[in-house]
Amino acid sequence: MTTSTERTLILIKPDGVRRGLVGEILRRVEAKGYTLTSVELRTADDDLLAAHYAEHEGKPFYAPLVEFMGSGPVLAAIAEGNRVIEGFRALAGATDPTAALPGTVRGDLGRDWGLKVQQNLVHGSDSVESAEREIGLWFPGR
Ligand code: RTP
Ligand code: MG
């Protein structure tokens, strides 16, 4: 177990904002004990989304994913705490909300809506390198 404080980028995706789940999701992050150090609601443009999702370019879900992510406001946040990257991904649950375990954000609050891309409420960085890269995109200078 490491004890160095980490940061992660959390996004509440447009489905979460549209459904009024911002408070519920941020409550879970804070109740787990992580600290929110930046929070901002905004609609992402295509350049930001292309940079954020560069690793998925060329995959079949890429275009619908970028379209969905730009379809309305997103809540972007930086959360801090020891092992917050792993901890937030555990809170979020599996990518597919149908398979995500109850107790997780996606498992408790998400489902398959029969749409072109999985609308799964949240994003969390998956490594220290991704977190610092993504924080630089969404919160330049922080
Ligand atoms: P995220 O990046 O959003 O935290 O989610 P993740 O790591 O669990 O999933 P990832 O593999 O990075 O995929 C990014 C997002 O693309 C959408 N997706 N749809 N087969 C599909 O329809 C599919 N696969 C991925 C999801 O919105 C996923 O969160
Ligand atoms: Mg990912």
Automatic annotation (TrEMBL):
Cofactor(s) needed: Mg(2+)
Reactions accelerated catalytically: a ribonucleoside 5'-diphosphate + ATP = a ribonucleoside 5'-triphosphate + ADP; a 2'-deoxyribonucleoside 5'-diphosphate + ATP = a 2'-deoxyribonucleoside 5'-triphosphate + ADP
Gene: ndk
GO terms, molecular function: nucleoside diphosphate kinase activity
UniProt-listed Pfam families: NDK (PF00334)
Active site, renumbered: 123 (pros-phosphohistidine intermediate)
PANTHER family xrefs: NUCLEOSIDE DIPHOSPHATE KINASE
Name of this protein: Nucleoside diphosphate kinase
Binding sites annotated in the UniProt record for ATP: 13, 61, 89, 95, 106, 120
Keyword Phosphoprotein: yes
Quaternary structure (record): Homotetramer.
Broadest EC class assigned to this enzyme: transferase
Gene3D superfamilies found in the cross-reference section: Nucleoside diphosphate kinase-like domain (3.30.70.141)
Keyword annotations from UniProtKB, A to Z: ATP-binding, Cytoplasm, Kinase, Magnesium, Metal-binding, Nucleotide metabolism, Nucleotide-binding, Phosphoprotein, Transferase
Residue ranges occupied by any Nucleoside diphosphate kinase-like domain in the UniProt entry: 5-142
Subcellular location(s) of the protein: Cytoplasm
EC number per UniProt: 2.7.4.6
Family the UniProt entry places it in: Belongs to the NDK family.
Keyword Metal-binding: yes
Biological function: Major role in the synthesis of nucleoside triphosphates other than ATP. The ATP gamma phosphate is transferred to the NDP beta phosphate via a ping-pong mechanism, using a phosphorylated active-site intermediate.
